[in-house]
Specification:
By secondary structure, chain A is mainly β. Chain A is built from one helix and eleven strands, in the order αβββββββββββ. In chain A, the strands form three sheets. A five-stranded antiparallel beta sheet of chain A has the order 2-1-4-11-6, with no helix packed on it. In chain A, strands 5-10-7 form a three-stranded antiparallel beta sheet, with no helix packed on it. A two-stranded antiparallel ribbon of chain A has the order 8-9. In chain A, strand 8 and strand 9 form a beta hairpin. Classes of the chains: A mainly beta, B mainly beta.
């Protein structure tokens, strides 16, 4: 146990300095938020928005940059982010390599296409959940040593 | 695994409803959105690791979104109907805001009508989602009323305020009977409070607007007007006339009033009677009459009810046909007239198209079909139950409930604010079969019967009556005393600044009265009390001077003022409005002729009259009299003759030029009691002088001065010569040498004049006349002579 704590401490030191080397993958995450607007051509124009203000209805894009700073490939890398309170997920906005899954219950269960069972008078029927109700998103991928990958999703401020 | 997922998702599905609800609510302004990502990963050996990103925070700003929406759809409405167009003002943003209803909120209408009455706002009611409400009536204060409420009731995100614009839709329909579009429009602005503006100091504004279009139907439009004489005095009959006229486009349609005793008819006009008019024997002069004109058709009949219900209407009370005679009619509480169809403009009556929906001018002003009811009552003198002049037949309440048809001002509404209602009622209140329901009734104007009455009297005693009656020692009726109800008479005996100059010569005594400098104005207070039934003003006038100057000089003038010093006095004077039962003071300002010598001490005065303006012929009088109180005595001493025989032998005979010892000088003292005389209506004068005494002290100076140079009194005449004086002989008191001849002095001997020998030592004499009354309308006067023997 004491040795494990020492390992964690070293990993943390590595993450902080980026100079330590271990025979293992070391994945770091960087999160940025950008305001998504359209230009005259309909193309997205991104404006960094962290620390600033937005209006209800604005569309934000969160980008997670995962970097494997270790010397071994990382497997089953799962960048995960909860849809922030006060926002709702924008359908079809997930970007990034790997398998994308969503959770309606803040990470208890995941599915590439969350389904709902609707109890009707004619019996139960299964329907796709409204993406606006997604509570979390995650990707599953792999990162080679020294590689970086970007994962992004958009939300709309309610 | 799939089964477990679906089970979980089924649970999620149950939650999805609430999730959707939450999703629909805007994120409140100021909310900080915080986000951080995590990651897990492995190294292929089974070991797993985690990573944590930085945290990104973003603050949610206000969104200035506000919406105004019409709740009520446009509806079909009748002319002159109160229509409620309802709106909601919703704060669709995510911060607290304050609404402002802009001046643009109001009615709208489509042009091209027949020039009828345009729609007009009646009131705007605001209600919060919590139920707090206020009603802002149209007028100068409406904008402030709206602003005050909206400022006090800010609107949270997703919250709303309901706006009810209640308007009178007017009568703007086509002469052809085609409908018109009318409606309302609400323009509002939401201003977000800076404090909730995400930290910004600048608030933001967003405008919103919505409109409701209603369809104004051409229809029957029955105006009902009630009038009565503008003026009525006790004993005068008052005729109330109720006229219903259809100035709409369509005919009134037959209505059935089952269970009421009334037949189906095109119109039923009901009229609750006030309690004071219900007693037929007490008030009614004759049976009411009914008449039809200008196209009103069918059978017309009158019915009465004895219902004790507070609100009698044709459709609710039980009615009985009016009998043929008053003798069989007892107390009733209401009257209804029914008549057949009353034509509208869509039909041809009297060969011409009838008036259309226009600004009402009153039944009779246009040739519309009419039904007229006349009710004649009497204003009995002395009645104490109900003064007809105060009575109105029917309710004065104006409809305020949306959906009802509002009274239209017809006739002299501005001059006669009392409004009575008489309405055609029934299951089909509008008396029309057109779809949808059309216009109904209009409350109209009734005149007020005025019973003017007043009293004017001496100051503080407006109810005083009776002629002036002076009693010796009494101040009753005098300005200086306490006026009372027995003397409708005011005397004032002051002429400030005047001088009196004795100009008389016996036996005629007169005096000159000269008013000093500028004319002295003599204010005489009167009090007027309004005993009538309406606030009234009174015109003041003066007539019939009780006495007139005998000098032929210029006349006195009279003006009136509310000031006790007669400031601003004017001869053309009308009081301010005097409330019923209230009193007001008016000063009659008597101005004597300046510098005019008056050779008679006559009083001046006249009849002061107050005339009711409300009636024009109701008056009351009081009397003013102005004179010199107490008057004065003129006394003149002359030598009437010289008699006697000289004591010395050879002395010349006694005469005015040859007086020697033994001669007798016969002195004459003439007196005149100058008092204001009484004449004319309600005029009288004081009784006269009391304790009238003449003194002769035998000295050559005035007022007891000088010396006695004429010796002793040798003889007195047996009796004085008196005219207009006391009937009884005066008494005489002799004073011996050294005694002071005064009123309080005591002489050496007393007795009736001429009855006692004159003592040798007599040096003075006092003659007591006692009371000397003023004789008729002229002054008392007389002479007394006595002889003095030269030593």
């Amino acid at each position: 146990m004491r040795r494990f704590l020492a390992f964690i401490t070293l990993c943390a030191a590595f993450a902080a300095t980026g100079t330590a080397a271990f025979a293992r993958p070391v994945v770091t995450l960087k999160l940025v938020a950008e305001l998504v607007q359209k230009d005259a051509a309909g193309k997205d124009v991104l404006t960094p928005s962290a620390g600033t203000t937005v209006h209800a209805g604005d569309r934000l894009r969160y980008e997670i940059v995962a970097t494997n700073a270790g010397d071994r490939p990382a497997t089953a890398v799962r960048p995960t982010d909860a849809i922030p309170a006060g926002t709702e997920f924008v359908a079809g906005s997930a970007r990034g390599d790997g398998k994308v899954e969503y959770s309606l219950d803040r990470g208890a269960t995941w599915s590439t296409e969350p389904m709902l069972v609707v109890h009707g008078k004619d019996g139960d029927r299964t329907v796709a959940a409204d993406p606006a109700t997604f509570a979390a998103i995650r990707w599953t991928t792999a990162l080679k040593a020294g590689a970086a990958s970007t994962f992004a999703f958009d939300v709309r401020v309610k | 695994m799939m089964k477990r997922l679906l089970g979980t998702l089924a649970l999620a599905g149950l939650l999805s409803g609430s999730i959707a609800t939450i999703a629909g609510a805007a994120t409140p302004a100021g909310t900080v959105i915080s986000n951080a990502a995590t990651a897990s990963y492995g190294d292929g050996t089974g070991a797993t690791y985690t990573a944590q990103s930085n945290t990104v925070t973003i603050t949610v700003q206000n969104v200035t979104t506000a919406t105004v929406a019409a709740v009520s759809p446009g509806t079909n409405v009748a002319p002159y109907q109160l229509v409620d167009d309802q709106y909601t003002m919703t704060n669709s943003g995510n911060g607290v805001g304050t609404w402002t209803i802009n001046a643009g909120a109001g009615t709208t209408q489509t042009t091209g009508g027949n020039g009828g009455s345009a729609p007009s706002i009646s009131s705007i009611t605001l209600t919060t989602s919590g139920g707090t409400s206020t009603n802002c009536a149209s007028g100068a204060g409406q904008a402030a009323c709206l602003s005050t409420f909206l400022t006090a009731h800010t609107t949270a995100a997703a919250d709303y305020i309901t706006v009810d614009i209640i308007y009178n839709d007017g009568s703007y329909v086509q002469p052809t009977g085609a409908s018109q579009t009318v409606g309302t429009q609400l323009n509002a602005t939401m201003q977000y409070l800076a404090a909730n503006n995400g930290g910004n100091t600048t608030s933001s504004v967003t405008p919103a607007t919505a409109a409701v279009n209603d369809t104004l139907q051409a229809d029957a439009l029955v105006d009902v007007q009630k009038t009565s004489p503008a003026l009525a005095n006790a004993g005068q009959n008052i005729v109330y006339t109720i006229t219903a006229a259809n100035r709409g486009y369509f005919n009134t349609q037959p209505i059935a009033l089952p269970g009421t005793g009334l037949p189906a008819a095109g119109i039923a006009i009901s009229d609750p009677l006030p309690s004071g008019l219900t007693s037929v024997t007490n008030r009614w002069v004759s049976l009411p009459t009914i008449g039809l004109a200008n196209g009103a058709s069918g059978t017309a009949a009158l019915y009465y009810t004895t219902s004790s219900a507070a609100n009698i209407a044709a459709g609710t009370a039980t009615w009985t046909a009016m009998p043929a005679s008053l003798a069989t009619l007892n107390t009733i509480t209401g009257i209804t007239a029914v008549a057949g169809v009353i034509s509208g403009a869509g039909s041809t009556m009297n060969g011409t198209a009838q008036a259309t929906h226009g600004a009402s001018t009153g039944p009779g002003a246009v040739t519309t079909a009419q039904v007229t009811i006349a009710l004649t009552f009497t204003q009995k003198s002395g009645e104490t139950d109900v003064n007809l002049a105060d009575a109105t037949i029917g309710s004065n309440a104006m409809p305020t409930t949306p959906g009802t048809v509002v009274a239209q001002a017809i006739g002299p509404a501005s001059a006669q604010p009392q409004t009575a209602s008489a309405a055609n009622v029934g299951a089909d209140i509008d008396n029309t079969s057109s779809t949808p329901a059309g216009s109904g009734y209009s409350n109209q104007v009734t005149n007020v019967a005025v019973a003017a009455a007043l009293n004017i009297g001496p100051g503080g005693q407006p109810a005083a009556s009776g002629a002036f009656s002076y009693a010796a020692g009494s101040a009753a009726g005098w300005e200086s005393g306490a006026p009372n109800t027995s003397n409708d008479y005011t005397t004032l005996g002051i002429l400030s600044g005047s001088t009196i100059v004795d100009t008389g010569t016996p036996p005629t005594f007169t005096a000159t009265i000269t008013t000093g400098g500028a004319p002295a104005v003599i204010p005489v207070r009167q009090t007027i009390k309004n005993n009538g039934n309406v606030a009234d003003t009174f015109v003041m006038s003066v007539t019939g001077f009780a006495d007139t100057p005998t000098s032929g000089g210029s006349s006195w003038s009279v003006a009136f003022s509310t000031a006790s010093n007669c400031a601003g006095a004017t001869s053309s004077f009308t009081t301010a409005s005097v409330a019923v039962g209230a009193s007001t003071d008016v000063y009659a300002c008597w101005t004597p002729p300046a510098g005019t010598a008056l050779t008679a001490m006559t009083a001046y005065g006249g009849t002061i009259t107050a005339t009711s303006v409300a009636s024009g012929n109701v008056v009351n009088n009081t009397t003013n009299d102005v004179f010199f109180p107490g008057g004065f005595l003129q006394v003149q001493k002359t030598i009437a003759s010289v008699t006697g025989t000289p004591s010395a032998t050879g002395a010349p005979a006694c005469s005015l030029t040859t007086l020697t010892s033994g001669c007798v000088i016969n002195y004459q003292i003439a007196y005149a009691l100058v008092l204001p005389k009484g004449s004319g209506t309600n005029n009288a004068s004081p009784a006269g002088a009391t304790n009238f005494q003449l003194f002769e002290d035998g000295k050559n100076g005035t007022n007891g001065g000088g010396t006695n140079n004429w010796g002793v009194i040798g003889a007195l005449n047996a009796a004085p010569s008196l005219t207009n004086g006391p009937a009884a002989n005066p008494t005489v008191t002799y004073f011996t040498a050294g005694a002071v001849v005064t009123a309080a002095g005591t002489g050496s001997a007393q007795g009736p004049l001429g009855s006692t020998a004159v003592p040798a030592s007599t040096t003075g004499v006092r003659i007591d006349f006692g009371t000397v009354p003023i004789g008729g309308t002229s002054s008392s006067s007389g002479t007394i002579t006595f002889g003095v023997k030269v030593n």
